[in-house]
Amino acid sequence: MPKRPLSPGRVRAARQSVRVTVASATGFYSALYALDQPVVAVYALFAPIALGVLSPIPGGGRDRARTMLIVLPLAVALTALGTALAVTTASAVAGMLVIGFAISFASAYGPAAAGAVPGLLLFYVLACFPPYAPDTLPQRLGGLLAGVLLLVLCELLLLPAPPVQRYRARIAAALDLAAASALASAQGHRRSPERARRLREEGLALRLSQAPPGSRPTGAGRTDRGLAQAGAATRRVLDQLARMAERPDSATAADPPSEELLRDVAAGCTATADALRGARAVPGPEALEEMVADFVAVRGRPSGSGLDTDAKASQRLLECRSDLLVMAASALTAQAAVAVAIGGRRDAAGLPPEQFWYAGPSTARLLALRLTGNLTLRSVLFQNAVRTALGLGAARLVAGALDLSHGFWVLLAVLTLGRTTAGATWSTVRSAAIGTLVGALAAGVLIFEAGGTVEVYAAVLVPAMFVAFSVGPIAGPAWAQGLFTLVVAAAFSQLAPADWRLAGTRLLDVLAGCTIGLVCGVLAWPAGAHAEVRRGVADMLRSAAPLVRVTVSAVVRAPGTSGAPEASGKSGTSGDTRPRHDDTDEALRLTRHRLRIAERAYAQYRTEGGRNAGDSGPDWHLALNCVSHAVIGSHWLPRQAYGPAPPEAVRWARESAGRLASAMDSAAAFPPGGVRATPVPLPHEVVSTAPAPVLPALVDIDTWLRTLAAELTAIGGSRPDGPPPPVRGDGTPPATARDATAGTAATPRPVQEGDGAGR
């Protein structure tokens, strides 16, 4: 029977174990036996463990080595600070609270910073536990530098991790496929289910969850923000092209303006893909923007094929052109985002500034916005930082008050076993306690049988480290704690004479750390992000309901009016013709703010192992998408200049929007089975009697509301009476080239909403 090949995860763990074991053993044995420096040996042993095992630093070998060198000065500073603050228990606890929060909260900067957080905390913890020994600081720093530099060399030379595919390469490949598909559609080959399948698969590959952690553009800088926006816009291009390829032939009649725009989009996608690969300079979005504007100018005109004699055919043609304009607007957004991300542009040409708000501020300003945007009790990053700081502070207080001989193990248990929910923490500490008990028994047997023979401990340490660091990350906390107990017993038995009581001390210290971590998990946001995501999504849906009302009323207005005063509870007169955008802007600002809070909570929820897709509970991700589409439409719809609509069209728009807004309010309570959102369909008599300049607006509103209704209905798992309309990635298209791309992303203004991590 052929052997099953090792999984990639096990191979990666084994290779990383080799690198960490070689670095730790080399530094430990050299310092202890060649230099007779036990303090140097301890830090040379734990430095590679801190950054190589406890810290999931993302990326390939070069990326990991670069991150380690970047954080090395901070590790030195934390070791020095921990050594100084260990003078009293009070100062040590105060420092643990402040440093624990600050370092944990720094994970908001991105995946590289988040990956290094556990290791940096370990450097401070290792230096801050008793006894107070400031005279050993040079030896401590020497061991730390030796251990980190040895690990850097191993990362570069010893079974180096292969480089991770960069996210920009994924975007470039997706844009190539989009260009080929757009060109095929322009040549008359529009319907192709196979091409639609490929487009959707390539779009799914652009999800950040599908990219390796080291390549995800989730940092706070301009490049990461631009690439994240370019990836999202490119995915919308692929989704829209897939819908075009799935349409029946009867709905895709030849249309010269559409074919010309498809060719222009194909050329723009190809140019952007080449720029991402470095094959050419980054193109500006001005050329494609002008092409979109030319298409908008003829959007409402008949095609010349005779379809305009039939109201239904005219509406179908408008819908097809509407979808095409959405796709072109997304391609324009992707090109502009790439120009900002890697082209060095500090503006977005003629595009809406709020969509590319990150183009202007300095990098320091963007980093500050990322932090200040998460300084709130509603931020799960803030909650995690507070929970970690409280746990480490309590552990340091216990270690100092009880004068534990190996109090470091208490803090290490809190650091490695704490989780974001009380349930997950209990499950982890229960497994860790069992594993530590077994490991302590094995360590006791080893010490008893060795009888103080140092050579035995020296021979056991290396294989124990390799097994612990390769099996522990894969097998779970029980194996990790049990094997690590054997490692520390073998290491500390070489530093000083030990008996079997060392294993018992290790067991008691780990149990104390488990207890502290469990108490903190129960007292500090025990539900983790689950309660936060439910509350955040509910607030988000409630804020989106009035946004739908004011948006529709601002676009579809009766003669002699210029807004929707009744949508916000205000009354107006038909003779008031002054523009009224305050209601829309305020509703949009609030909805965008709450959307970002809900997105951050959902991102944390997914890391906690949230419900799977087959659960009957609310679909949080779909709720986020629904409100995102509401925000998208509110960006551009109020900016339209279609002119006044007939009274019957105004009544239809407000009734349909009111019904959908009421459904959003109801959905915020998450009733069993969800809600059934059924907006009023656009009557054919309204389509046939509406003036030509107004008809595109009516089609846009109808499609936008139906899209929102389909998503809102599906949040709770229920289904509408009839088949839901196709869900569009961007909602519906704008009417001007500059306003077009305002609907392709919902980016918060930095001053008003702060900032948050991307999904």
Summarize this entry quickly:
The chain has helices at 8-34, 38-54, 61-85, 89-105, 111-128, 137-157, 167-186, 193-204, 222-246, 256-277, 286-297, 311-341, 363-372, 380-401, 407-417, 422-450, 454-475, 477-495, 501-523, 529-555, 582-607, 620-636, 647-667, 684-689, 695-715, 737-740, 750-753. By secondary structure, it is mostly helical.
Characterize the structure shown:
With 759 residues, the chain is an all-alpha fold. It starts with 7 loop residues before the first helix and ends in a 6-residue tail after the last helix. It has 27 helices and no strands.
Strand content of the residues, in percent?
A: under 5%
User: Which whole number gives the mean pLDDT?
Assistant: 79
- How can the largest sheet be summarized? none
Report the uncertain regions.
Answer: 304-309, 562-580, 609-615, 718-759
SSE ordering? HHHHHHHHHHHHHHHHHHHHHHHHHHH
Which term fits the overall shape?
elongated
Number of helices: 27
Q: Kindly, what is the distance between the CA atoms of the first and last residues, rounded to a whole number of angstroms?
A: 44 Å
Helix content: 55-70%
Count of β-strands = 0
- Rg estimate, integer Å: 30 Å
User: Which structural class fits the helix and strand makeup?
Assistant: mainly alpha
Provide keyphrases for this structure.
759 residues; mainly alpha; disordered C terminus
How is the topology of this model organized?
Blueprint: H1 8-34, H2 38-54, H3 61-85, H4 89-105, H5 111-128, H6 137-157, H7 167-186, H8 193-204, H9 222-246, H10 256-277, H11 286-297, H12 311-341, H13 363-372, H14 380-401, H15 407-417, H16 422-450, H17 454-475, H18 477-495, H19 501-523, H20 529-555, H21 582-607, H22 620-636, H23 647-667, H24 684-689, H25 695-715, H26 737-740, H27 750-753
Helix pairs in contact: 1-2, 1-6, 1-17, 2-5, 2-6, 3-5, 3-6, 4-5, 4-14, 5-15, 7-8, 7-9, 7-10, 8-9, 9-12, 10-11, 10-12, 11-12, 12-25, 14-15, 14-19, 15-19, 16-18, 16-19, 17-18, 20-21, 20-22, 20-23, 21-22, 22-25, 23-25
